[in-house]
UniProtKB/TrEMBL annotation:
<feature type="binding site">
    <location>
        <position position="17"/>
    </location>
    <ligand>
        <name>Mg(2+)</name>
    </ligand>
</feature>
<feature type="binding site">
    <location>
        <position position="116"/>
    </location>
    <ligand>
        <name>Mg(2+)</name>
    </ligand>
</feature>
<feature type="binding site">
    <location>
        <position position="55"/>
    </location>
    <ligand>
        <name>Mg(2+)</name>
    </ligand>
</feature>
<comment type="similarity">
    <text>Belongs to the dethiobiotin synthetase family.</text>
</comment>
<dbReference type="InterPro" id="IPR004472">
    <property type="entry name" value="DTB_synth_BioD"/>
</dbReference>
<dbReference type="GO" id="GO:0009102">
    <property type="term" value="P:biotin biosynthetic process"/>
</dbReference>
<comment type="function">
    <text>Catalyzes a mechanistically unusual reaction, the ATP-dependent insertion of CO2 between the N7 and N8 nitrogen atoms of 7,8-diaminopelargonic acid (DAPA, also called 7,8-diammoniononanoate) to form a ureido ring.</text>
</comment>
<dbReference type="GO" id="GO:0005829">
    <property type="term" value="C:cytosol"/>
</dbReference>
<keyword id="KW-0067">ATP-binding</keyword>
<keyword id="KW-0479">Metal-binding</keyword>
<comment type="pathway">
    <text>Cofactor biosynthesis; biotin biosynthesis; biotin from 7,8-diaminononanoate: step 1/2.</text>
</comment>
<protein>
    <recommendedName>
        <fullName>ATP-dependent dethiobiotin synthetase BioD</fullName>
        <ecNumber>6.3.3.3</ecNumber>
    </recommendedName>
</protein>
<keyword id="KW-0436">Ligase</keyword>
<keyword id="KW-0963">Cytoplasm</keyword>
<keyword id="KW-0547">Nucleotide-binding</keyword>
<keyword id="KW-0093">Biotin biosynthesis</keyword>
<dbReference type="GO" id="GO:0005524">
    <property type="term" value="F:ATP binding"/>
</dbReference>
Length: 241
């Protein structure tokens, strides 16, 4: 049984994958077998001659367990848009059972697993609204690490996301502030408000705007001991739910 956490964000394009890759890289330095997974990804690029989603490529590069792109992300779609829309454009659907089976198959080869959601916390996986990324987090029943995009609106987005996480009976185990707007007014006051509003969930890092946000560049801005503590006995990803 691997120990795992679920990483979500307050919005899309707020650096969720770069933070997830940094966490994967840090855990891998301990000698443990670590992988980053992103079960659903929309938007395909050509990277080193391979057609692959950029986020999937970043997580695979940070992992020290050799997984294929399909093992990391069983559902990758061409169009860079909402996943259920991208799936419909290809005449496909996002299958819940296949995702959960893929996550557990990959986890069986690992000591630690970081499962990244897509976009914000509640992103539809079908056009009927019957299953979304929040439901995936609940299916896995893992502690949730939230990436907060530090820009105007961050407080509202973070508090609403935290409320949605807790409403599903999940534990918000911490948050990382990632600077999106380096010229944001009153950033310090915003961080203070987030610390108060998010209550028992600790801040595990404040990442500045970096010219090249690689896992190695991000790592010094994260609370490494606290991140290791996230993967304790209540974060077990069981092979059989």
């Amino acid at each position: 049984m691997a120990h795992a956490c679920f990483i979500t964000g307050t919005d899309t394009e707020i650096g969720k994958t770069t933070i997830a890759a940094a966490v994967v890289g840090l855990l891998g330095k301990t000698g443990l077998r670590v992988a980053g997974l992103k079960p659903v990804a929309a938007g395909i690029s050509v990277i080193d001659g391979e057609r692959i989603n950029e986020d999937v490529h970043a997580l695979r590069a940070a992992s020290n367990v050799a997984l294929s792109a399909d093992e990391i992300a069983p559902f990758q779609f061409e169009a860079a848009c909402a996943p259920h829309v991208a799936a419909a454009l290809e005449g496909r659907s996002i299958d819940r059972g296949r995702i959960l089976a893929a996550i557990r198959a990959a986890a069986a080869r690992c000591d630690r697993v970081v499962v990244e959601g897509v976009g914000g916390f509640r992103v539809p996986f079908d056009d009927a609204g019957g299953w979304d990324s929040a439901d995936l987090a609940r299916d896995l029943d893992l502690p949730v690490l939230m990436v907060v995009g530090l820009r105007l609106g961050a407080i509202n987005h973070a508090l609403l996301t935290a409320e949605a996480i807790r409403a599903r009976g999940l534990r918000l185990c911490g948050w990382v502030a990632n600077t999106i707007d380096p010229a944001m007014a009153q950033a310090s006051a915003t961080l203070d408000a987030l610390a108060v509003g998010l209550g028992s969930a600790p801040c595990l890092g404040l990442v500045p705007r970096l010219p090249a946000p690689s896992p190695e560049a991000i790592a010094p801005y994260l609370n490494v001991p606290a991140l290791h503590r996230l993967f304790d006995s209540d974060s077990v990803l069981k092979e059989n739910p």
